[in-house]
Amino acid sequence: MGVVSDENGIPLPGLSVVIEGTMTGTSTDIDGKYSLEDLKPGTYKLVFSYLGYEKNVQEITLAAGESKQLVFKMQPSAEALEEFVVVGYGVQRKRDVTGSISKVDGGELLKLPVPSFEAALQGQASGVMVTQGSGLAGSSSLVRIRGIASISAGGDPLYVVDGIPITNTAFITGNAGGMNNNPLAAINPNDIESVEVLKDAAATGIYGSRGANGVILITTKRGTSKEGRWDFKAGVGTSSPAAKANMLNTDEYLQLRQEARVP
């Protein structure tokens, strides 16, 4: 009999207890307790194993009619964890990812005052070309990953926000008077944790034909359990016309209207 706990003294339920060299064993209950019955007198090696903890071997010697209780703590495994990359269909070790991926930290996107976050990607990731689509307020930027892939079809990459693909199609709301609507403008750059750009054929394998022009993965920030803190950021801008049109005043306008009525 005995009790097994972790390094903090918390019981470990489901821990495996096996007599070395045999198939005889048991597991701990919800309180970390275990029991091996009907053992003959002799010397035994008990092997304790648990996921995330180092294997522990305890040797005991039992005499006829004797019972012993082992109470000890398991030590966490000190093996270094490998770095992982989250892709569209799961998680892979970073050394196994052969695709071309560029990552831009969210803090880099805040260094330039831009109308939408994708404009701040210019010069931040290799192989990504960003140009202003038009001078209209709220219009989207023209993003091309590794050049122009099509002459007649669309060349915009697929945008995925926290695992959800979003539509970035011109005139998505119908006839808007020639204005190219930009749904990405609704994303606050301050809420972006990081941006990953998938630039090769691996993106097509993950997301199908929608990723033929590349994929931009956007990860937003999450809440943390640290000490509460509020961040506030505000900006003020002014504008002035480069040249003013020579307009009529009230009297001049009324005079022209009167002259127009005279046959």
Task: Provide tags for this entry.
2 domains, Immunoglobulin-like, 5-stranded mixed β-sheet, elongated, 263 residues, 2 helices, Ferric Hydroxamate Uptake Protein, Chain A, domain 1, 29% strand, mainly beta, single chain, 4-stranded antiparallel β-sheet
* CATH architecture annotation name of the largest domain: Beta Complex
User: What is the name of the CATH topology of the largest domain?
Assistant: Ferric Hydroxamate Uptake Protein, Chain A, domain 1
Helix-and-strand structural type: mainly beta
Fraction of helical residues: under 10%
CATH class of the largest domain: Mainly Beta
Strand order of the largest sheet: 10-15-16-13-14
Shape: elongated
Counted beta strands: 16
3D structure, described in words:
This protein is mainly beta and 263 residues long. The protein has two domains: 2-73, Sandwich (Immunoglobulin-like), CATH 2.60.40.1120; 84-220, TonB-dependent receptor, plug domain (Ferric Hydroxamate Uptake Protein, Chain A, domain 1, Beta Complex), CATH 2.170.130.10. The chain contains two helices and 16 strands. The protein has helices at residues 201-207, 250-261; strands at residues 2-5, 16-19, 25-27, 33-34, 42-49, 56-62, 70-73, 84-87, 90-93, 101-105, 128-132, 141-145, 158-161, 164-166, 192-198, 215-220. It has a five-stranded mixed sheet, with helices on one face. A hairpin with a 2-residue loop joins strand 13 (158-161) and strand 14. The longest helix is centred in the last third of the chain and has 12 residues, at 250-261. It is elongated. The N and C termini lie far apart (117 Å). The relative contact order is 0.11. The model has no long low-confidence stretch (mean pLDDT 77).
